[in-house]
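Could you help me review a protein record that somebody else here produced? What it holds is a sequence and that sequence's fold in token form. I have pasted the whole thing underneath without changing anything:
=====
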Amino acid sequence: MPRRELHTALFFPGHGVQRVGMASTWVDRFPRTSARFLDEMDAILGFNLSRIISDGPNSHLNRTENAQPAIMAVSVLILRIFEDEFGFDTGSRVDVTLGHSLGEFSALVAAGYLKFADALRLVRRRAEVMAQCTRRAVEQSGETHGMVALICEPDHIESLLRTVHEFLGLGTSSLDDTSHASPPIQRVMVANINSPNQIVLSGSIERIRTLLVQLRQFGGHDPRAVRLKSDSPFHSPVMSPAADYMKTAVEGVDITFPAIVPCISNVSALPFRSKEDLKNLLSRQCTDTVRWWDSIRYLHQERGVRRWIGIGPGKVGRNLVGKEVGRVDIKGGGVWAVCNPREMEDTMVGLEQTESEVRAV
């Protein structure tokens, strides 16, 4: 099949979309493919994660060491059903893959850089180390940890970021003298830059609250703050042991480079350039800021991506891509979400129609 004029990105969700029963609709509709895949998953991990996914309880599924491999595996399950049951060919229908934080592993599997078994083992062990990092941080500081999204007006995001960095001691201060009475706020980092109007802070919740007070009193900003569904401060220095684990672990993993299609790094917001680049950035992703919005802008502006196919549990779609690039006038463009079998059927029909029209031009 010839390459399309309409460039397509395949993207995957990260931590927080897990829910008990998230594979049930796929198991009910495609029992053979799903059963084979879930048996494979359990065999790789050496325990019955599929039962936790189907039956819970929530307290077990929400543990970092279970939630992360579960989300990644269900995302790959959905893609495998798309490929095996509907004939979706990633190599001919997709130009690039990317994943939000944890979703980067799903994207690397989809693009052919990592085998599913290797990725699943990496994710499980990395998540175990991350859970240990969180427990240690809480014990040492006596403070609650987690993540908080800050939402502001789109034209204020750059100013908000600069001010946050100044309060954290990461930038040259342009604030008035009043702010200098307080030392830089420690153990808080910018974990994600998700969109033109949202960033995520990670670290001590108490210190994030202190930062919010300073932003409102001295920084000229009043963002809406939303506590995220995570008790762990991902993408912060607290996770340094996880980064160290990844540095060692990836050396023992078979990485295919080049793979089927390019994959975008969360850290660089650019395609992985080599095996060594992939190893380095996959390790740094544990502690560095996820530059998601930079990745979306790069694909939209530099690579001409106009069709975005989101695959995974939860409502994968416009929220991860953004209204600015998701609304396009090109036929077949925009954001296509594949979160249930009906959406998969509709997407496949739409792809066939669009590609037929492109070939006919």
In short: Residues 7-136+236-360 form a domain with the Malonyl-Coenzyme A Acyl Carrier Protein; domain 2 fold (CATH 3.40.366.10).
